[in-house]
Design goal:
The chain is mainly α and 624 residues long. It has 24 helices and 8 strands. It comes from Diatrype stigma.
């Protein structure tokens, strides 16, 4: 019997119980590893690192058998052509050329090519259609230059480059925000969908034939303009929405000027009251404007009465039609996205065994959550831009644009910063004022009306609907006191409320949209050799868990923001949201970057398996 066969037989009899102590077992393990390093051939080492790709294995094996690496080392590793390699090794240059080209391309392969071009770039087009309340914009002072100076001409191209960089940063930052916080944003959007559906269902019932036109108009206005911010930043729960100047201006779309009176001498069934070109006492209108002359009774206490405007239907239709076309906003990016999937699948069929293609496909399915978010946001009835609304109601004599949430928070910091003789307080105040003067973060749209971001649209529309309900109930109570018949539907608040069943449908509906991309991506990464749980599949799983946690925190934050007064809970919720949000950004954006630059291909992720326990059921992390 040869010595090798004798060693093999002896090793076959060794088990875990063959050692008197743990040190003997570890000593044998070290000896076996040292022996393994001595007997392994270069091909064995190459196969260990490249076994998941048969094409790579075949190319490297061909070059090893031809003696390319040995001859190249003998020549001092200097650059050689294919013909020179063929002359040194005596191999056929037709055989060496494709093998050398493939191996050399392994070092130059851009792992970001597939995911970046096929999936991430189309997602940029998707995210531009998602409603937002802020943007990063180049300050106006960058393009200012003294007139008559030639230096401004030479600095123009530099300023243009700076503006281009700022635009790219703005777009990519919003893309990262949409990807990292997709769960709460979809939850808010679906909440708005369900609320719009309840309103339309309520208005389509039979008894709405007795509904006052102004109530119908206000409900429709809440649908098409419910994304306008009416609650000031830093409000308290006792804030009366009816006192908001924004609310008073927006409702001008569906009603005429308010006339103070206790009772109006007007027939509500008559849609054409007496008109005159002269305004009544105390009411001033533009020259030539027709107003309804209403006689107010002389009473001690007066009530504000709102009159339905006959032009409200056309104005509401204008607001609805101002929304961008669904096909133009979403259709074209979907074609590019589907095209990327098709190309990747065809490429995978021609490159069987290439796990890079499989992982690129997995990350493309992972980013599919951005198209889900864009499709939902583009199907909303409320327009993303408030420009049409501003043109319909005007600025109310206040032409100044709103300051935006970023500047309001900075001013709050300046206000709360203590004044003192110490240099720290002065430097802090100067720093905050300097950041404010940069004017980098601005409202998404110019004008006095401010739109809310997607994750606030659902709760913000709830405020609009609640205000309409409060107005309707107050009118019903006043009508019951005066004996004037009003709308015969006193259950408006009950019909538009969200019950437990509605909340469950909302949560599980969004959960499906969040789970599908992560589940498909995780399953693809799991089944890509070697099969099991590893860096990439853990990335998808952690992202899914983070989104579910963020959705729960969104519900808690919404309750605290619009309901509870507990400041301690608000502080705790904000801190938890900040921590979870930072972790989610690292998981989503950091995980994608690590896939693109090839971090997941390093030696740590090349570990075949890492047992976490001694039992046979222990979890093993395997390289994907």
């Amino acid at each position: 019997m040869s010595p090798v066969n004798e060693i093999i037989l002896r090793l076959g009899d060794i088990g875990v119980g063959s050692f008197d102590s743990e040190s003997e077992r570890l000593q044998l393990c070290d000896a076996l590893l040292a022996t393994l390093q001595k007997v392994r051939s270069p091909w064995d080492i190459a196969c260990t690192h490249n076994w998941v790709n048969p094409t790579t294995n075949a190319a490297i094996k061909t070059l090893i058998d031809a003696g390319i690496f040995k001859k190249w080392t003998e020549q001092g590793n200097k650059p050689l052509s294919t013909a020179e390699f063929a002359e040194l090794t005596g191999a056929d240059p037709v055989l060496l050329a494709p093998a050398l080209s493939f191996v050399l391309a392994l070092e130059r392969r851009l792992h970001l090519r597939g995911p970046l071009v096929q999936f991430i770039l189309p997602c940029v087009a998707f995210c531009l259609s998602i409603p937002r309340g802020w943007k990063i914009e180049a300050p106006e002072w960058i393009f200012r230059s003294p007139p008559g100076e030639t230096s401004g001409f030479f600095l123009y191209y530099f300023k243009l480059l700076v503006a281009l960089v700022i635009v790219c940063v703005d777009t990519m930052s919003w893309l990262c925000v949409c990807f990292a916080f997709a769960g709460p944003m979809m939850l808010s959007a679906i909440y708005e969908y369900m609320l719009d559906g309840k309103i339309l269902k309520y208005m389509s019932w039979d008894y709405t034939g007795h509904m006052l036109p102004l109530l119908r108009a206000r409900l429709l206005l809440a649908i098409v303009a419910g994304n306008i911010l009416v609650m000031p930043d830093g409000h308290d729960q006792d804030f009366d929405l009816a006192r908001s100047q924004v609310w008073k201006d927006v409702v001008k779309v569906v009603q005429r000027a308010a006339i103070p009176s206790n009772d109006l001498n007007i027939n509500r069934q008559d849609s054409h009251p007496e008109e005159t070109t002269q305004p009544p006492n105390g009411v001033f209108t533009a020259e030539g404007e027709s107003v309804v002359e209403l006689r107010a009774m002389e009473v001690e206490t007066q009530h504000t009465e709102y009159i339905y405007d006959e032009n409200a239907p056309s104005r509401l239709r204008t607001l609805l039609n101002s929304q961008a076309s669904f096909g133009a906003a979403v259709g074209a990016p979907i074609i590019f996205f589907v095209g990327g999937f098709t190309y990747n699948i065809l490429e995978a069929q021609s490159r069987e065994g290439d796990n890079d293609t499989a992982h690129a496909l997995a990350y493309g399915m992972w980013w599919m959550i951005i198209p889900h978010l864009a499709i939902i946001s583009c199907a909303m009835l409320a327009a993303n831009s408030p420009s049409i609304l501003h043109s319909l109601v005007g600025d109310g004599g206040r032409a100044e644009a709103h300051t935006g949430p970023w500047r309001r928070r900075l001013r709050k910091v300046v206000k709360c910063t203590p004044r003192g003789t110490g240099s720290f307080q002065d430097r802090l105040r100067n720093l905050v004022k300097g950041v404010e003067d940069l004017e980098l973060i601005k409202p998404a749209y110019d004008g006095r009306f401010e739109t809310v971001s997607l994750w606030r649209r659902g709760p913000n529309k709830r405020l609009w609907v609640n205000e309409v309900i409060d107005w309707h109930e107050s009118e019903a109570r006043r009508a019951s006191q005066t004996g004037v018949p009003r709308d015969g539907s006193p259950t408006l608040r009950k019909l538009l409320e969200f019950g437990v069943e509605d909340r469950l449908w909302l949560f599980f509906g969004v959960l499906v949209l969040v789970i599908v991309p992560s589940a498909l991506a995780g399953a693809t990464s799991w089944n890509t050799p070697r099969t099991g749980l590893s860096c990439r599949s853990l990335n998808h799983l952690a992202y899914l868990c983070a989104q579910i946690l963020q959705m729960a925190l969104w519900g808690w934050d919404t309750h605290l923001h619009y309901g509870s007064r507990d400041k301690l809970q608000k502080s705790v919720c904000w801190m938890v949201q900040f921590v979870v949000g930072a972790i989610t950004v690292f998981i989503s954006i950091g995980g994608t970057l690590m896939q693109i630059i090839g971090v997941y291909r390093n030696c740590l992720c090349s570990v075949s398996r890492l047992p976490l326990c001694e039992t046979s059921e222990c979890l093993q992390l395997t390289h994907m």
